[in-house]
Design brief:
31% of the residues lie in helices and 20% in strands. The protein contains seven helices and eight strands. Strands 1-2-4-3-5-6-7-8 form an eight-stranded mixed β-sheet, with helices on both faces. Helix 6 links the parallel strand 7 and strand 8. It is globular and about 40 Å long.
Length: 254
């Protein structure tokens, strides 16, 4: 698992604005009801993100991350993956997530993403540029959802796993050349679960397909380095925040 109940996202390297958030329940086209957390900036910068959590689903780290985005002026909704198999139950450390990860299907996940996207659009009253921001499993899903016609402005993935083959439809590496949107990928150089050669292959495939991309590897940083407690990697976290905010700004202004 990526983040435990004590993990907290680093603070953005800008003066925080005011924001508020709330737990909500969204309904997908197939009737699935799933938990989400919606965060609203008091002053919008004209962009929004859908946060894809790690393997544990929607837990406190991602609710707070949604608030941190909103404090920068970016509307955010963080979603849970497991409404179909675990209902609306808690995703704290006691949640046995792995059986539910094994039941995850891309088609149903994409349906949930569409529900989150519709929620953002309806609450804003317009189709603002939207970016999925994923972590671990969520990073993989950010890349895979980039093969779909969601109309995203760009994709952001922290430590996206390259070897997970959901539904037998191919790994993120297998499908990298199908991605339709610019990519920002952030990786730890000491992440034992994501070999550096896989990261290099991802970059080569994006380059070969002519897909705009920025792939960053932080030397010595482990999986889940983006954590306020990881003081040894505070500079990497600040740099990652800066790159995320620049990427969103650059692809919002187009």
């Amino acid at each position: 698992m990526c983040y435990d109940d004590n993990a907290r996202p680093p603070l953005p390297p800008i003066e925080g604005g005011s924001a508020h958030g709330e737990d909500i329940v969204l309904t997908a086209a197939d009737g699935n009801r799933f938990a989400a957390y919606s965060a609203y900036p008091d002053k919008s910068l004209g962009a929004q993100v859908i946060i894809y959590p790690d393997v544990r689903g929607l837990h406190q780290f991602y609710k707070e991350l949604a608030l941190r985005f909103a404090e920068t002026g970016i509307r955010a909704v963080a979603i849970d993956y497991f409404g179909r198999t675990a209902g609306l139950t808690s995703r704290d450390d006691s949640f046995d997530f792995w059986p539910h990860v094994q039941q995850l299907h891309l088609a149903s996940f994409f349906s949930d993403v569409k529900a989150a996207q519709d929620h953002l659009h309806s609450s804003q009253g317009s189709n603002l540029p939207t970016f999925p921001v994923g972590f671990c499993l969520g990073g993989t899903l950010a890349l895979l959802s980039g093969t779909q016609d969601f109309g995203f402005a760009g994709l952001i993935g922290f430590y996206a796993g390259m070897s997970r083959n959901i539904d037998g439809e191919g790994t993120a590496l297998d499908r990298a050349e199908e991605i339709k949107y610019p990519v920002l990928g952030l990786f730890g150089g000491a992440d034992q679960g994501i070999p550096t050669d896989q990261v290099q292959t991802l970059e080569q495939k994006l380059e070969g397909a002519g897909i705009e991309h920025e792939i960053v590897t932080y030397p010595g940083a482990p999986h889940s380095f983006f954590d306020r407690r990881a003081t040894d990697f505070a500079e990497a976290s600040i740099d990652a925040w800066n790159r995320v905010l620049r990427f969103i700004s650059a692809h919002t202004s187009r």
